[in-house]
């Protein structure tokens, strides 16, 4: 599979404004919409063009559909703490009507947003002038029915629910249930179950519909909980843990085994976990070891101390599946991202950079030289830029279109259509 | 990338991270601090074992039982693998082969290999460019006697941060052994650990960065040499020191104490982080923080 550049969104400046740092990327269920959240608390939604006016080798482009301020900075007076407005996660709800709904969360508060289109407006009010001033009712001599006339498309985002005050610690993830009525939110120590209609309570102990959810611990274990089994969910129904390789033990063993992301496969049979150096695929029926392990950047194992000093070792990389679960993708440093083709046991390293951003330019595979003589076109480990990291990636649910977020730019790549 | 990775530096770096997390926007990040405490614990274990092996070599602090123990162990001939296993111990201080110096060991090497020069040590480690877990002793076969000692139970040892002189010290059996800490990596390697200093004299001051007030800028300060230590220590503001106490005591880390989460209970059952002020009798110190 070859990948081509499609689009890049965001400022070109090398000077990155902190508020522009992208903190989450998520396609909706059809892939038509792509949402990003940033450190400034804003959500930007891109929409794929419905009509493909371009030649066949171009896929439809994504253009800005809606932008809104989701969260503002707040101050917790009781704890003397500022609450960051950074959007930690966005999750789309499956579409039920013409409007779209998404959940966005910062460290403390989850909000349900309704995104709706308005392309008509009413005209011919009886009591209002065209400019909005109210008429004197006594001046009316006749009544008419207002009519809807077309207008330029306007996309409105309105907060419909605010779920607050349920998390003592920082919310790190949310997940929508397949029943479309409930969702989970998790902070460092607690998982809350919410009903979308009820904002003043979350049901930590309430047994709900058949549902399993998974959470990972900082020790590198993953627990699958079935809410059918127990109301409390303190006991896990499955515990996924791979015994540690003693030859790899180090000061930093716990940090690098800490799981930064978990994703179920689309078919529900597997789950993928990302720790600092690797991606592991687990069969949900086998708990004692993963079925596949892919090394993302093993050359960093000898650099863990430096990465600890500069805090890079705490970076939380995400991972994602493609539509048919045959390929997984995750990010790395130097604006590299990696794809692993499961069946063919192939992997590739690609780079998101402005230099490779000509339309439909095919991305050249990159290689990092871990030691020894560096070949031409290889990059040595010491030349990697650890400030350029790809933490957030997303794969279109059906097509081979991927969204890859560098610090403040969103790159969209597509596979090469022959 | 350069980094000084000996255990003392890791302890210093970790403490600094914990302190700076207090002033980060958005509040203390629990998960990150938990991971930092793992590193602190691991570094401390390693540091304690190295110190204890050094202490047991010195006549002044040995008791008869320790001498006997050491003699018995010296008579044991072991493989190189067993020797490298002495670098680390597990969380309870019991000797374990679950730690390594980061290198995948081939078949058991004869013990003689460890007694050759440092380049031979490098050769048995296939990951030759790994600067991860090769402590100074690995490269200095002069220190091989440190390897030969069993990894002891360290429950009679404590790591103490003296608030007045700002020295991180190991307390063993009631005796103090002040150590340098937060020093840049010494080129002389393991010999660095063989220095012995008495109490009350020639203290190195650790980086006082984390004594600065919460919300002020944190300027970098150089390490100061022993000669400057006594004079400069007076200049440190007591309010800054109590600030540190609150960080390590009732401040951010006190949250760790009240966690109910199963994982964390297991962590604390095996390795409790205990931060409290300790009045140390028989010393010139009036205040100290006992870590771990």
TrEMBL record, chain A:
Keywords of the record: Repeat, WD repeat
GO molecular function: protein phosphatase regulator activity
Keyword Repeat included in the entry's annotation: yes
Any Gene Ontology CC annotation: protein phosphatase type 2A complex
InterPro entries documented for this protein: PP2A_PR55, PP2A_PR55_CS, WD40/YVTN_repeat-like_dom_sf, WD40_repeat_dom_sf, WD40_rpt
Family the entry assigns: Belongs to the phosphatase 2A regulatory subunit B family.
UniProt name for this protein: Serine/threonine-protein phosphatase 2A 55 kDa regulatory subunit B
Taxonomic lineage from the root: Eukaryota, Metazoa, Chordata, Craniata, Vertebrata
From TrEMBL, chain B:
Pfam families: IER (PF05760)
InterPro entries the UniProt entry points to: IER
Origin superkingdom: Eukaryota
Family (UniProt): Belongs to the IER family.
Name of the protein described by the UniProt record: Immediate early response 5 like
Classification of source organism: Eukaryota, Metazoa, Chordata, Craniata, Vertebrata
């Amino acid at each position: 599979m070859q990948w081509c550049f499609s689009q890049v969104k965001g400022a070109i400046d090398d000077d990155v404004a902190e508020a522009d740092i992208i903190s989450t990327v998520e396609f909706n269920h059809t892939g038509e919409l792509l949402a990003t959240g940033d450190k400034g608390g804003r959500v930007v939604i891109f929409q794929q063009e419905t009509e493909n006016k371009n030649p066949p080798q171009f896929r439809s482009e994504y253009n800005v559909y809606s932008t809104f301020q989701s969260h503002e900075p707040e101050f917790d007076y009781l704890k003397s703490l500022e609450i960051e407005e950074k959007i930690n996660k966005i999750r789309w709800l499956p579409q039920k009507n013409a409007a779209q709904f998404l959940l966005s969360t910062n460290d403390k508060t989850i909000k349900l947003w309704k995104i709706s289109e308005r392309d008509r407006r009413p005209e011919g009010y009886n009591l209002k002038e065209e400019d909005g001033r109210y008429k004197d009712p006594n001046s009316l001599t006749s009544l008419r029915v207002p009519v809807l006339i077309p207008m330029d498309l306007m996309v409105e985002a309105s907060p419909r629910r605010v779920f607050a005050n349920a998390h003592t610690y920082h919310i790190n993830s949310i997940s929508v249930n397949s029943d479309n009525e409930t969702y989970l939110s998790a902070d460092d120590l607690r998982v809350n179950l919410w009903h979308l209609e009820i904002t003043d309570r979350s049901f930590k102990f309430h047994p709900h519909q058949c549902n399993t959810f998974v959470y990972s611990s900082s020790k590198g274990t993953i627990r699958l909980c079935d809410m059918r089994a127990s109301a409390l969910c303190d006991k896990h129904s499955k515990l996924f843990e791979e015994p540690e390789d003693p030859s790899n033990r180090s000061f930093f063993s716990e940090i690098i085994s800490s799981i930064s992301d978990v994703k179920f496969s689309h078919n529900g049979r597997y789950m993928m976990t990302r720790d600092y150096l690797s991606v592991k695929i687990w069969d949900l029926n086998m708990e004692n070891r993963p079925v596949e392990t892919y090394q993302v950047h093993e050359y960093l194992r000898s650099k863990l101390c430096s990465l600890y000093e500069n805090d890079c070792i705490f970076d939380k990389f995400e991972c994602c599946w493609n539509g048919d679960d045959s390929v997984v993708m995750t990010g790395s440093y130097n604006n590299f991202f990696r794809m692993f083709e499961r069946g063919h046991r192939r992997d590739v390293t690609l780079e998101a950079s402005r230099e490779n951003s000509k339309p439909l330019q095919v991305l050249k595979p990159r290689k990092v030289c871990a030691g020894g003589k560096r070949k031409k076109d290889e990059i040595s480990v010491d030349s990697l830029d650890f400030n350029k990291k790809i933490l957030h990636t997303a794969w279109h649910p059906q097509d081979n279109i991927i969204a890859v977020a560098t610090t403040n730019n969103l790159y969209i790549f597509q596979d090469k259509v022959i | 990338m350069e980094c000084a990775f000996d255990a003392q530096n890791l302890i210093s770096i970790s403490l600094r991270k914990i302190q700076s997390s207090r002033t980060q926007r958005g509040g203390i990040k629990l998960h990150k601090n938990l991971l930092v405490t793992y590193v602190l614990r691991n570094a401390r274990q390693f540091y304690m074992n190295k110190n204890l092996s050094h202490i047991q070599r010195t006549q002044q602090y040995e008791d008869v039982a320790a001498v006997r123990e050491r003699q018995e162990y010296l008579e044991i001939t072991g493989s190189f693998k067993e020797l490298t296993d002495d670098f680390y111990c597990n969380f309870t201080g019991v000797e374990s082969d679950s730690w390594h110096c980061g290198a995948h060991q081939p078949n058991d090497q004869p013990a003689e290999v460890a007694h050759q020069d440092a380049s031979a040590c490098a050769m048995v480690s296939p990951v030759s460019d790994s600067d991860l877990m090769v402590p100074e002793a690995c490269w200095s076969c002069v220190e091989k006697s440190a390897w030969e000692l069993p990894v002891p139970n360290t429950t009679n040892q404590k790591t103490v941060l003296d608030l007045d002189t700002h020295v991180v010290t190991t307390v063993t059996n009631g005796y103090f052994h002040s150590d340098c800490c937060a020093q840049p990596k010494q080129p002389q390697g393991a010999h660095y650990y063989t220095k012995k200093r008495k109490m009350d004299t020639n203290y190195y001051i650790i980086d006082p960065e984390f004594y600065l007030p919460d919300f002020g800028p944190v300027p970098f300060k150089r390490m100061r040499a022993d000669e400057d230590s006594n004079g400069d220590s007076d200049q440190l503001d007591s309010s800054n020191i109590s600030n540190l106490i609150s960080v390590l005591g009732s401040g951010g880390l006190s949250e760790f104490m009240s966690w109910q989460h199963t994982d964390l209970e297991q962590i604390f059952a095996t390795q409790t982080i205990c931060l409290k002020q300790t009045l140390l009798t028989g010393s010139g110190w009036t205040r100290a923080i006992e870590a771990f």
